[in-house]
Structure formats: structure tokens, C-alpha cells
């Protein structure tokens, strides 16, 4: 540590000395040094210090222009140091750092001469004790992604209004109170089935695995929330365990991961069906807001009423328009007109049929007269007779009926049997007819 010794020589008050030329070691009340000279001296002294590795917890992380201005707190006490992390150095970091992280950092002291500010400039920073573990987690993350466990297509949809919510969290924890309070504010009738488990340490993975299996086997549980408050990456390692991740992926009940804060990102977040940034966010995303749902129902009811009113008004107007048409206002007028047309067509049909019948009747009479004139019966009616032999041969020649030949004579009315007496000479023919 530097000690400033004032000049106590007897003649120091006898001559004034310019402040810029007085070294801090030679300053006095009569010959003080300047602020710039003092700050430059301190700056030069601090620049001789080397870099040092220090472990602590990030309590402040403010990003301005790509650079970070933060504070690091001692893990065991209350001591705090300020640090600056330039953007060019930060770009080389692979760790995702945030407030609350336990880190190991390489710092070099720096004193800003113009402003008199003392801070430490960071050249390296990483999570404390997590380097190898984080590397293993990244390899596991890549393996699970290649197996499709992070695929959005395999994630299950959450029920709109779960009847029973399974909650896995620490006993008497803030996370449990946050989930219950926010869920009940949104839907007072919400029902929970809570299983307490260790959320850090050696018992974390076995307890959470048993709780997941228990709630997944419960048929009344519609969705499972795994919740805990924030913490450093070391305390959240249990929620990146491969056994737990695969058990959640195989669960038939939808699982919501609500681990830590927004910046925390265990593997459980990637495989869960829904990732909530905080336990409070999980309650809001799993349980619908009763006020919002009532407002939505009222809005839908109003829209439905408006639509039905408009539709009924349109249909009533259309019906009135149809009723105002003449054919519907007096439908009998259409029938009367059609009746007159039908009567005319029926009368015309009867006339056509009558004329056709008369023509055909006369035609039939003519044919009947012609047929009668040509018919043998007509000839017989005039007194003629037809004689035919026993074999049915009609006698047309006297030579066909020699003496003694038997014949049948057909008359106009009936028939008689006759025996030929031979041919009669022409002179013996009487006016009455031929002598048989």
C-alpha cells in the first residue's frame, strides 16, 4: 500500500510550487499535488498489478453497447467488486451468463485516471465447476435432439381446462405458493394433486422420477407441472439428468417444465410438452382466466345474437318478397287460367275423336256392304243354292252329278240331301230354277 508523506521542511512555505509539478509523495498543505497527478500516479501503480482468478456470484449484469458492467459478490461474505466485460471479449464466451450465476473469472485491476473510478477488466469468465459438466450436457442435448425427443410434432397438447393438475415441487417452496396462488386467481375451482420432492441435490432425480411416475399413472391428473425457483446451474443439474428427461418424454400425461427463471435452460425444458419461464408463468399458461373466458363467451354470444338477428331479418324480408308475388298472393288465379286451357283442350279432343269415329264408322259400313255383296250368304238369300258332293266338291257342272249321285244342297236357311236324277236338258229348265 502506498503511503503519502508530506514535506515538512522548514522552507517549504517560502516558495510556491506548481501543483502539476509536485509528486504526491512530496505534496504538502502549502504545495499540494493536482488531482490529475494523483490519479495518474494511482493508475500507474495499479497497472503494475497482474491478473488474478477470482470466484464469486454475479449480482449485477448490465449490457450497454455490447459491453457488460457488473458486480461480483463473494460467496462467503458481503465483499463486492465491480467489473467491466468488453464486447470483443464477451463474443468469445461460450457460456450463457446471467445474474445469480456462480462464476470463476480472470480479472485485471484498472483505474480510470480521468474519472477516478476503480474496477476490474474481465478477460475470461466461466461457470464455476461446470465446464466439464456443461460439455457433457451439450453432448447429451445433441444426442436427444438427434433421437427426436425435442421434436415439436411429438409434444402433446395441454387440455383447455384441466380438472386436476399434478404439481411436483419442493415442500413449502415459493414455487408451490406461486403456482397455487396464480392458478386459483385465474380459476378458483382449480384442483391440485401436489407431490413434494427434492428439487436439488442427490435426492432430486429419484424423487422427481417417482413423482412423475405416480402422477402419470393417476387417471384423474390431466397435466403435470414440474416447478422450482431459480438457482445457479449447479443446483439445476438434476433437471438435465438423462433418466428424468427420458421419463418425461415417455409420459402419457402432458408435462410442463417451470424450472428457474427465464435464463435457466435445463434439458427438461426441451423435452417437456410446454416450457414455462417461471412457476407463475406455468400457472397462467395451464389454467385459463375465468374473467377472460366469461368475456369471450359474452362476446361470442353477442356475435351469435347479431348474426341470428341479421339472418332472421334477411329471411323474413325474403319471405315477404315471395308472398308479395301475384302467384302466391292469389294462387287460384293460376288454376283458373289453367282450367280454361284444359277445358278448351278437352273440347278440341272430343271433336277430333268424334270426327275420327264418324269417318271410321262410315268406312266400316262401306266395307260391310262390300263384304256382304261378295259373300255367298248374300247369293243364297236371293234363292240360289250350293250343291256339293259327299267329298265336299262343289258341283259346278251337271256332269259332276251323274244319275244316282248323292249331294248336299246348302240353302239360305239350312241344307237338304238330294239324289241326282241325271242331267236335265236345257229346254226342261223352268223359271223357278234348275230341276234336280
Automatic annotation (TrEMBL):
Residues 1-35 are annotated as: Disordered. Residues 149-367 form the Exonuclease VII large subunit C-terminal domain. Residues 34-126 form the OB-fold nucleic acid binding domain. CDD domains: ExoVII_LU_OBF. It holds the Pfam family tRNA_anti_2. It comes from the Bacteria. Keywords: Cytoplasm, Exonuclease, Hydrolase, Nuclease. It is found in: Cytoplasm. Transmembrane segments: none annotated. InterPro entries: Exonuc_VII_L, Exonuc_VII_lsu_C, OB-fold_nuc-bd_dom. Its main location: cytoplasm. One of its GO terms (molecular function) is exodeoxyribonuclease VII activity. The keyword Nuclease applies. Its EC number is 3.1.11.6. It catalyses: Exonucleolytic cleavage in either 5'- to 3'- or 3'- to 5'-direction to yield nucleoside 5'-phosphates. Bidirectionally degrades single-stranded DNA into large acid-insoluble oligonucleotides, which are then degraded further into small acid-soluble oligonucleotides. NCBIfam families: xseA. Heterooligomer composed of large and small subunits. Belongs to the XseA family. PANTHER family: EXODEOXYRIBONUCLEASE 7 LARGE SUBUNIT. This is Exodeoxyribonuclease 7 large subunit. The lineage of its organism: Bacteria, Bacillati, Actinomycetota, Actinomycetes, Micrococcales.
Amino acid at each position: 500500500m502506498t503511503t503519502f508523506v508530506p514535506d515538512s521542511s522548514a522552507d517549504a512555505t517560502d516558495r510556491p510550487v506548481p501543483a502539476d509539478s509536485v509528486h504526491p509523495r512530496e505534496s504538502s498543505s502549502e504545495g499540494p499535488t493536482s488531482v490529475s497527478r494523483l490519479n495518474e500516479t494511482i493508475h500507474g501503480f495499479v497497472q503494475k498489478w497482474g491478473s488474478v482468478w477470482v470466484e464469486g456470484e454475479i449480482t449485477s449484469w448490465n449490457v450497454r453497447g455490447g459491453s457488460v458492467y457488473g458486480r461480483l459478490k463473494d460467496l462467503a461474505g458481503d465483499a463486492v467488486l465491480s467489473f467491466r466485460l468488453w464486447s470483443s471479449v464477451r463474443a468469445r464466451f461460450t457460456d450463457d451468463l446471467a445474474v445469480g450465476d456462480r462464476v470463476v473469472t480472470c480479472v485485471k485491476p484498472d483505474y480510470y485516471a480521468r474519472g477516478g473510478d476503480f474496477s476490474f477488466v474481465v478477460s475470461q469468465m466461466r461457470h464455476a465447476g461446470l465446464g466439464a459438466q456443461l460439455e457433457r450436457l451439450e453432448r447429451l442435448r445433441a444426442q436427444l435432439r438427434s433421437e427426436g425427443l425435442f421434436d415439436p410434432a411429438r409434444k402433446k397438447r395441454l387440455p383447455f381446462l384441466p380438472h386436476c393438475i399434478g404439481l411436483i415441487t419442493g415442500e413449502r417452496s415459493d414455487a408451490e405458493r406461486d403456482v397455487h396462488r396464480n392458478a386459483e386467481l385465474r380459476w378458483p375451482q382449480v384442483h391440485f394433486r401436489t407431490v413434494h420432492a427434492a428439487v436439488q441435490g442427490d435426492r432430486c432425480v429419484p424423487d422427481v422420477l417417482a413423482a412423475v411416475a405416480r402422477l402419470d399413472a393417476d387417471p384423474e391428473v390431466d397435466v403435470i407441472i414440474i416447478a422450482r425457483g431459480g438457482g445457479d446451474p449447479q443446483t439445476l443439474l438434476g433437471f438435465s439428468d438423462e433418466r428424468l428427461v427420458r421419463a418425461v418424454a415417455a409420459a402419457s400425461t402432458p408435462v410442463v417444465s417451470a424450472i428457474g427463471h427465464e435464463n435457466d435452460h435445463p434439458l427438461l425444458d426441451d423435452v417437456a410438452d410446454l416450457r414455462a419461464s417461471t412457476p407463475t408463468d406455468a400457472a397462467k399458461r395451464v389454467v385459463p382466466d375465468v374473467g377472460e373466458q366469461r368475456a369471450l363467451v359474452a362476446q361470442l354470444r353477442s356475435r351469435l345474437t347479431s348474426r341470428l338477428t341479421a339472418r332472421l331479418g334477411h329471411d323474413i324480408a325474403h319471405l315477404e318478397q315471395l308472398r308479395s308475388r301475384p302467384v302466391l298472393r292469389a294462387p287460384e288465379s293460376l288454376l283458373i287460367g289453367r282450367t280454361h286451357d284444359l277445358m278448351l283442350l278437352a273440347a278440341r279432343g272430343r271433336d277430333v275423336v268424334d270426327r275420327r269415329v264418324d269417318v271410321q264408322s262410315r268406312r266400316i259400313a262401306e266395307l260391310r256392304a262390300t263384304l256382304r255383296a261378295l259373300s255367298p250368304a248374300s247369293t243364297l238369300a236371293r234363292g240360289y243354292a250350293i250343291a256339293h258332293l259327299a267329298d265336299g266338291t262343289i258341283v259346278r257342272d251337271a256332269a259332276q252329278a251323274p244319275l244316282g249321285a248323292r249331294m248336299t244342297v246348302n240353302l239360305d236357311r239350312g241344307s237338304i240331301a238330294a239324289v241326282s236324277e241325271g242331267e236335265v236338258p236345257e229346254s226342261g229348265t223352268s223359271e223357278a230354277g234348275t230341276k234336280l
